[in-house]
């Protein structure tokens, strides 16, 4: 019985927030990026990378605790804008599903999406600056 | 203390009953109906899924006989879909994981891009999302016109087709379609929405119970 109650309680709200600590880590401006990024993520990324960032099996790579994402955010900016083809290794698993380009995304929007994905689901990273994102997007 | 315990159990019961209260209610039968006079009585003829023949990810022929004595969930997708397909597959995986051990349950996913989505491609795709065999979940390809015909008013009645202007080049419905053993459509659910898929997952046992 106690176990059942415990299960019920944890299901209701005991679980830790996916964005725990983000308020302490980011300043006001960065939090604004993060919040806008979450909205843009839902619009552009969520259908494939899923709302918890776990991706889909060995078809679509995870963003949550993803070494491929976190080791080079500039590369991630490029992939968002120009798409991605060919095999990549993420957390030791090979993925080879093309990702479509999103040419309509502005550097600021890409910066906001990056702010979100690199600071949620257990990810932690410094927020890039707009000139850094613009620089990364220069070369396709 | 004992009283408290009893009250809790009653409370739980109420909760369970209120969550699944419509359990005895039959699911609707969808689609056009025709009425036919047989020996002076009016019979209702329901819309049924016509015969078909496709090939699945293990090169097995899949037709109406594959689903004899089974209820199944059907959908339409394509492997390179940049929009709603992955989330549909994530949701279908929840259904698969819940019901895959039931011998009276199956899933039928039609590709609407058969030129690209060959048997070999579908095998790779299905394995990558975690479906290792074709026992329960058939990913089928075949003649494009016949696949589109299955989506039409003659079949599952959902929009599918080619459209150069759509992302990825195809339009298709995100619907999951629940079909009974008589091949009648018993429900439509938005396969991109967790809550609607939850509803489907509670309707599947209700439909199975009709045959007990």
UniProtKB/TrEMBL annotation, chain A:
Domain Cytochrome c stretches: 32-121
Named from the GO MF annotations, one term is: metal ion binding
Q: Would the keyword Transcription regulation turn up in this protein's UniProt record?
A: no
Keywords for the protein's UniProt record, in alphabetical order:
Heme, Iron, Metal-binding
Q: Which Pfam families match?
A: Cytochrom_C
The answer to keyword Isomerase applying to this record is no
Entry protein name: Cytochrome C oxidase, cbb3-type, subunit III
Write down the species: Roseivirga pacifica
TrEMBL record, chain B:
Question: Which InterPro entries does UniProt cross-reference here?
Answer: SCO1/SenC (IPR003782), Thioredoxin-like_sf (IPR036249), Thioredoxin_domain (IPR013766)
Print the keywords alphabetically. Answer: Copper, Disulfide bond, Metal-binding
Instruction: List positions binding Cu cation.
Output: 81, 85, 172
Q: Is Secreted one of the keywords UniProt gives this record?
A: no
**Which Gene3D superfamilies does its entry note?**
Glutaredoxin (3.40.30.10)
Q: Identify the residues that the record assigns to the Thioredoxin domain, covering every copy.
A: 43-209
Q: Which residues cross the membrane?
A: none
Q: What is an example of a GO molecular function annotated in this UniProt entry?
A: metal ion binding
- Alphabetized PROSITE patterns for the sequence: PROKAR_LIPOPROTEIN, THIOREDOXIN_2
Q: Which Pfam families match?
A: SCO1-SenC
Kindly list the cysteine pairs connected by disulfide bridges: 81-85
Q: PANTHER family annotated for this entry? A: ELECTRON TRANSPORT PROTIN SCO1/SENC FAMILY MEMBER, LINALOOL DEHYDRATASE_ISOMERASE DOMAIN-CONTAINING PROTEIN
What protein family is recorded? Answer: Belongs to the SCO1/2 family.
Please report the name of this protein according to its UniProt entry.
Answer: Protein SCO1/2
Native source species: Roseivirga pacifica
